[in-house]
Specification:
Glutaconate Coenzyme A-transferase, 11 helices, 8-stranded mixed β-sheet, about 15% helix
């Protein structure tokens, strides 16, 4: 009997108060047509109601591929657990994502878990274990002593517990069943065997399918095409049909935000460096150039979302990757691609011209096991001890993503971002930097609102941590921040130290940032 059906028929099987899990990494591998059908059913009938959603990563872009933003309706969504949330405003309308609004208005029980916990928790659900035990995140926002990842007052306690095991503290994520799983793949046959030949990521598709079937639930897969049974080599079929109950065919879906189809995201392509976009002039480009100086050939480097992924584009533009030198760098993200170029913006997560790909759960095995030597991550707030917040600040609720997993697992880490935000304008001429207009909000605060990275833990295990901005570079030491570099043209007292919410040590040999960073 064929498993192929239309989106409406697939979501008609979802009942009130069930738990629904879904794949998606921004616009990549997001089963948007099935999510749209679920939202339309609720709008039309008022059912299903009070669903609990589990999204290991931000699913969709809240724009052309709305993803989980489609489900942001009171009555439909009771609880959401996600590794990250969608926050940027729509570039045309200026609207914030609807899901962000639900969270800000306390209309949903919202939880944010580290992505690593999300993907490894799926394994525990799949094999029927009591839950996931880890030391990653102790002392951070996910620790129950610091909120347990609860992002709204409606969010219940107990989804994350602090436990004592063999004389040490651990975080424990108790298992609970998943009733429905929604996947995205490239192709399926009528038996539901899934392959991913034109998608750049597989992420948690397999782990999620195993968890749902281990819970006795139903798996729905959205694909672009049906292929004849036996037409693909077994090595291409990443999810066997025994794990799939229903297949929804949606031809012509884009691979990701702004990418309909591009072979450069699927494997090595000639002149990959020459195809890359250029960064506009400004503070972010200065930061990217300074971060690029921290990259080392042969060192496995993981780049995070935001401006931290700009460094490799700056290297390409400035000639640092010419003559095949891209192959000297091993670049990855928390989502599994290795080699090639980590892309920025809405194309983040997939690499351009990659050499290899791990699934999401295996990639976090690699990260937690210390496989990445160096990481570049963004920051929203930093305090005097070097603690970093990217999880929640003001009315912005991006969640922790893979930040905590990565920052706690690498040997060297750089936190990169502008010194202030909201309105900052800088100008660089003749190798000097000037601040035309200061940002309204300082990122260096007396106390971060949430701790996504606890500096003391990194310092104790010998981690090297550095902060890079457009005007200054700081090292994080056991005694707090030390100012080690200042941009030419910047007054260290007036434009750095006096604008920080805490005292900072100035290095005895304070260096000037390379004037070449500030060329047009």
């Amino acid at each position: 009997m064929s498993k192929v059906c239309d989106p409406a028929s697939a979501v008609a099987l979802i009942a009130d108060r069930q738990s629904v899990a879904c794949t998606g990494v921004l616009g990549w591998i997001t089963p948007d047509a099935v999510l749209r059908a679920l939202a339309e059913r609720f709008e039309r009938t008022g059912s299903p109601r009070e669903l609990d959603f589990f999204f290991p990563c931000a699913t969709g872009d809240a724009m052309g591929i709305p993803g989980m933003d489609r489900l942001a309706r009171p009555g439909l969504m009771r609880r959401i657990v996600s590794g990250s949330y969608i926050n940027p405003r729509h570039p045309v309308t200026g609207d914030r994502p609807a899901l962000t609004g639900l969270i800000r208005r306390n209309e949903v029980a919202a939880h944010s878990w580290p992505i690593g916990a999300c993907v490894h928790w799926l394994r525990e659900v799949a094999r029927g274990s009591p839950g996931y035990l880890t030391r990653i995140g102790l002392g951070t926002y996910i620790d129950p002593r610091h909120g347990g990842g609860r992002f709204t007052d409606r969010a219940e306690a107990g989804l994350v517990e602090l436990v004592r095991f063999r004389g040490e503290d651990y975080l424990f994520y108790p298992s609970w069943p998943l009733d429905v799983g929604i996947l995205r793949a490239s192709s399926a046959d009528e038996d539901g065997n899934l392959s991913f030949e034109d998608l750049p990521l597989t992420s948690v598709n397999l782990a999620l399918a195993l968890a749902v079937k281990g819970s006795g639930g139903t798996v729905i897969a959205q694909v672009g095409r049906i292929v004849p049974r036996g037409s693909r080599p077994a090595q291409q079929v990443r999810i066997p049909g025994v794990l799939v109950d229903h297949v929804v065919v949606v031809p012509g879906q884009p691979a990701g935000t702004g990418v309909q189809s591009d072979p450069g995201y699927l494997g090595p392509v000639p002149d990959a460096v020459g195809r890359l976009p250029r960064l506009p002039a400004g503070a972010d480009k200065v930061i990217a150039r300074r971060v690029a100086a921290e990259l080392r050939a042969g060192e496995t480097t993981i780049l995070g979302f935001g401006g931290s992924s700009d460094a490799i584009l700056a290297m390409a533009e400035d000639g640092g990757l010419a003559d095949g030198r891209l192959a000297d760098y091993v670049l990855t993200t928390e989502h599994g691609p290795f080699g090639g170029v980590v892309m920025n913006g809405w194309q983040f997560a997939a690499n351009y011209s990659p050499d290899a790909l791990l699934d999401g759960a295996s990639q976090f095995d690699f990260i937690h096991g210390g496989g990445c030597d160096f990481a570049v991550l963004a920051f929203a707030q930093i305090d005097g001890a070097g603690n970093v917040n990217v999880s929640r600040f003001g009315d912005t609720v991006p969640g922790g993503g893979g930040f905590t997993d990565i920052a706690e697992s690498v040997r060297r880490v750089v936190f990169a971002g502008t010194f202030t935000t909201q309105g900052l304008e800088v100008c660089s001429t003749d190798g000097r930097l000037s601040v035309r207009q200061e940002g309204r909000i300082s990122k260096f605060v007396a106390e971060v609102e949430l701790v996504t990275y606890r500096a003391g833990a990194g310092v104790r295990r010998g981690q090297q941590a550095r902060i890079i901005t457009e005007r200054a570079v700081f090292d994080i030491t056991p005694d707090g921040l030390v100012l080690v570099e200042v941009a030419p043209g910047i007054d260290p007292r007036r434009e750095i130290l006096d604008r920080m919410g805490f005292p900072v040590t100035v290095a005895e040999q304070l260096r000037t940032m390379d004037p070449a960073l500030f060329r047009p």
